[in-house]
Amino acid sequence: MNIRVASELDYPALRRIYLESRRKSFYWADIEEMTLEDFDKHTIGEYIILAEEDAEILGFASFYLPDNFIHNLFVRPDFSGKGVGGQLVTASIEKMNKPIRLKCVSENQKAMKFYENNGWKKVVEEGNSEEKYWVMVYE
To answer: Pfam families from the xrefs (predicted)?
Structure first.
């Protein structure tokens, strides 16, 4: 598996991964409101890396370097649980300065477990009654 910086040529595949992954796993959200354009809106000004194998994009991470903050981590649903997310998190950590933060929606128990298994710690739960999330830190 190869991890590299994404280019605009990769964006069509990244848009599909973002949309498909969110529609499959964000059971608490209205999937009808999700669009391909969300990827562009939700990654403005972010550094984006991707994982690929045999020229096929398997997932991506986007982060905001000035704040050492991982904003997005998404893997194609058919590659979930195969180490793609772990490699993307490791590559993200190597690119930023510690401590590194992220927010994980409280309802997303699968993601929460993934991060905790990879050394992240819950700091505080924030948000409103419609969408609570945990601020997590990696030191």
So the answer is: Acetyltransf_1
